[in-house]
Write a structure and sequence with these properties.
Number of strands: 16
Radius of gyration: 32 Å
Strand content: 15-25%
Distance between the termini: 106 Å
Largest sheet: 5 strands, antiparallel
Shape: elongated
Mean pLDDT: 91
Helix content: 40-55%
Low-confidence stretches: none
Number of helices: 16
Number of domains: 2
Length: 455
């Protein structure tokens, strides 16, 4: 008796290719406006100049971060962290008010996927043409269309990777290296890494990044409530479906065809929905054709759908306690960060006493201690600074008593402090060393130190 054939159980369903249909409408125009603005900023910002240098540059080699007139050092990393926290907080606020509108209109994954889809349509045609081409055997027509599409994708991805690295390595250096194909190992790795990430995520993975890889899709529900604007299907008005039914939905499936993640919004809110509103535009076009009022699929809230609230009543519920808490906290946080930045003194100094000498007697019986000042001018204007010490009677700076620093320069300066014989207590004496700009007395910093008087 023959043994039964082994049964294969597939744990994961095979991914079905999604060919989003192109749609035009109010929300799609907004998406393209957001796409153009965000990419103008991303691709254009590295070319902006400020005081003879790149306006926005996180220069890892020299450990300086330039944001227009603001110069941050590794010690100021707290400000960069604060900016990221403010952005995250702002995202929470937007999500509480309008759901995943960030994902649908401004998220880099969505933006680059839309750019890659535009290139794909230029080479392969409309949705139906792409589906026919995918089923055809390999031919010259299919080869050049597929090959041309992927070549255009790679060129855009390489330009994106180059631009991304130019935020961390000066653009003029990268441009010279690109002309001679002489990238350093660090630049080569990150240009290729970010290029391949863009090519893979926007060209191949597409909706899978949003559905399976993005953590935001998983915890977004924690920021939703019954008054959060989401894309909704008016089931009361639309059902029952069908061309000849009493419901407004004629079951044309255009809302599914235009969805970049391939979901049916008529099944209710789903975590795969990125809030791009393509289904709203598609449905509104159909409603116009069958002479039905728009809004079968629209931005609304769970409470509004259940209670039949008007648009005016929906707007009244926007400024609810959760939104007010997010807004107030975000504004306070931003004010605190910018106030701290405005009051920040663009001068830093660390005092290190020479531990090899506990204090020594020099000419005329004076007692001398040696120090090293680690001075950092974080501003973009050079200054000459006077060094002054206090804390013991007759305490004076021997040599040097002035130091000159250029813009964004750091320097280690050795100095010698002296007191007359018999001044100060034997052992450790608390003193202060002050640095003051000669051309701007308000630009000053003071640090504590100790002066050793030997027995």
């Amino acid at each position: 008796m023959n043994a039964p054939a082994p049964q294969v159980i597939k744990m994961y369903a095979k991914r079905e290719d999604i060919f989003p249909r192109e749609v035009k409408g109010h929300y799609q125009n907004l998406r393209w406006i957001c796409l153009i603005l965000t990419q103008l900023v991303f691709y254009g910002a590295p070319w902006l100049q400020w005081n003879g240098r790149q306006a926005i540059l996180f220069d890892l080699m020299s450990r300086k971060f330039y944001i227009f007139g603001l110069v941050l050092w590794p010690q100021d990393f707290i400000y960069l962290a604060a900016m990221l926290i403010a952005c995250a907080w702002g995202l929470f606020l937007v999500t509480a008010v309008a759901g995943r509108v960030w994902c649908g209109f401004s998220c880099p994954q969505t933006v680059y996927t839309e750019m890659f889809l535009w290139i794909e349509r230029k080479f392969e045609g409309s949705r139906s043409a792409q589906m026919r081409l995918a089923k055809e055997p390999m031919s010259f027509n299919k080869a050049w269309r597929k090959g041309g599409k992927h070549l255009a994708w790679l060129l855009l991805a390489l330009w994106t990777g180059f631009t991304f690295v130019s935020y961390f390595s000066p653009l003029h250096n990268l441009a010279k290296e690109a002309q001679t194909f002489n990238f350093g190992p660090w630049e080569t790795f990150w240009v290729l890494f970010y290029s391949l990430a863009t090519y893979g995520n926007a060209g191949w993975l597409r909706e899978q990044v949003c559905k399976y890889m993005c953590p935001y899709a998983r915890f977004q529900s924690a920021m939703f409530d019954r008054d959060t604007l989401i894309i909704t299907y008016d089931e009361k008005r639309g059902e029952p479906r069908g061309p000849k039914s009493e419901g407004s939905c004629i079951d044309c499936s255009l809302c599914v065809q235009v969805c970049p993640t391939g979901i049916d919004i008529r099944k209710g809110l789903q975590y795969e929905c990125i809030g791009c509103a393509a289904c709203i535009d598609a449905c509104d076009i159909v409603m116009d054709k069958i002479q039905q009022p728009r809004g079968l699929i629209r931005y609304s809230t769970d409470r509004a759908m259940q209670l039949g609230l008007s648009a005016k009543e929906i707007r009244k519920r926007i400024m609810r306690p959760r939104v007010l808490l997010y807004t107030g906290g975000l504004l306070l946080f931003i004010v605190a960060v910018f106030t701290t930045l405005a009051l920040r003194t663009p001068l830093k100094m660390d005092v290190i006493r020479d531990r090899g000498s506990m204090g020594r007697e020099v000419e005329n019986g004076m007692i001398e201690n040696v120090y090293r000042l680690q001075i950092m001018n974080t501003g973009e204007q050079g200054h000459t600074y006077r060094i002054h010490a206090s804390g013991i009677d007759t305490l004076q700076v021997a040599v040097p008593d002035t130091v000159e620093l250029g813009p964004t320069e750091t320097r280690a300066v050795p100095i010698r402090l002296r007191v007359d014989h018999g001044k100060g207590e034997t052992g450790s004496n608390k003193i202060s060393i002050e640095l003051t700009a000669l051309d701007d007395p308000s630009l000053a910093v003071k640090e504590k130190a100790v002066f050793i008087v030997p027995r």
